[in-house]
Amino acid sequence: REQILSVSGLKVHFPVRSSGLAGGKQVARAVNGVSFEVFKGETLGLVGESGCGKTTLGRSIVRLVQPSKGGKIVFRGRDITGLGNREFRPLRTEMQMIFQDPFGSLNPRLTVGQTLGEVLKVHGITKGTQATAKKIDQLLDTVGLNRDYASRYPHEFSGGQRQRVGIARALAVNPSFIICDEPVSALDVSIQSQIINLLKDLQRELGLTYLFIAHDLSVVEYISDRVAVMYLGKIVEIADAGTLYANPKHPYTQALLSAIPMPELGHQRERIVLKGDLPGPLSIPEGCSFHPRCPFAMEECRKREPELLSLQDEPSHKVSCLLYQ
Ligand code: SF4
Predict the structure, then answer these.
(1) Could you tell which of 237, 322, 324, 325 is best to mutate to test the pocket of ligand 1, judged by most ligand atoms within 8 Å of the CB?
(2) Which atom of ligand 1 is nearest to the CA of 289?
(3) What confidence score (pLDDT) does residue 66 get?
(4) Cβ–Cβ under 8 Å, residues 232 and 53
(5) 234 SS3 class
(6) 56-61 — which CB contacts under 8 Å span 24+ positions?
(7) What is the fold of 3-94+175-324?
(8) Is residue 306 lining ligand 1, measured as CB closer than 6 Å?
(9) Considering the chain, what is the average pLDDT of its residues?
(10) What pLDDT, in 10s, does the model give residues 105-132?
(11) Could you tell me which residue ranges the ABC transporter domain spans (predicted)?
């Protein structure tokens, strides 16, 4: 399979001023050594609780956040880690991002047609008013919106329609890879499935590749070919979606999945309730960072940090847990 993206050892750390009387600086380790690949035409789901670093990871791939502590990002065979903004600019048409809140990223004073027209102009996609108007019509068609909507303003749209506009804007530059950051989390359940189905159709028609970030495991299962689970800035498990949902290996994945109904399993999993709260990125525990909450923690887990390694009999299923090492 052809790799479109490869991320290795990526770290994004932020200095944070501590609030204590003594002052001083602490470091938030938002992304703390992440490696994975995305293959052409697939959807890789990235799940985890809020604060696990998944959004920062997505943003660092499209350079909205700089990898601060090392690692490498290779896109279509090219190392893009050290590229300056000018060198990275042409790649922005190949890589797009869809956000949770399309309203926040749409200018309220521009009609949808003007917004799309701006994008087409800035990136030199169409030349001349007629060609641009035609392309705008085509984009609205592609995302299932009436062409008349081009003259409307963002506040005139429902949440689902706004997300369709967000998708149209991403598609305007003919990208091959789209990072979808919680694209349906703010929508009603019935609208969620419409948008997910639209994303699936577009993937088939346009040969798109997605990195799909979400905290909702059911949504991720529905759209993903493979799924990566993140905990405190690291990927703790990655596998084909079917395998991961039927046979999760990492205790954290097992706990997450035990909380959602799995009718296809024919029985409900036994609910695993985790101890304590999710620690923040300022205070990541030593050893296996999951050890204070893990029902299977051993003495060794406090000291030794597990690596993300393939299971012996399943090379494409990787787990970061000492139980398997
Ligand atoms: Fe639990 Fe230890 Fe595995 Fe970490 S390494 S998930 S603490 S068993």
Answers:
(1) 322
(2) 4
(3) 76
(4) yes
(5) strand
(6) 56/12, 56/30, 56/31, 57/7, 57/10, 57/12, 57/31, 57/213, 57/230, 58/97, 58/179, 58/181, 58/211, 58/213, 59/97, 59/181, 60/10, 60/12, 60/31, 61/5, 61/7, 61/95, 61/179, 61/211
(7) Rossmann fold (3.40.50)
(8) yes
(9) 91
(10) 788 999 999 999 999 999 999 999 999 9
(11) 16-257
Q: Is 75 in the pocket of ligand 1 (CB under 6 A)?
A: no
**Atom 3 of ligand 1, residue of closest alpha carbon:** 321
- pLDDT surpasses 80 at 12: yes
Structure tokens belonging to residue 164: 């369709």
The string of pLDDT tens digits covering residues 172-189 is: 999 999 999 999 998 998
Atom nearest to 251 CA in ligand 1 = 6
Say if ligand 1 is within 6 A of residue 291 CB: yes
pLDDT band at 28 (very low <50, low <70, confident <90, very high): confident
Residue for token digits 């030349």? 127
**Ligand 1 contact via 36 beta carbon (within 6 Å):** no
Nearest CA to ligand 1 atom 7: 291
> For the chain, what are the domain ranges?
3-94+175-324, 111-174
Ligand 1: residue of 291, 311, 320 to mutate (most ligand atoms within 8 A of CB) is 291
CB of 65 within 6 A of ligand 1: the answer is: no
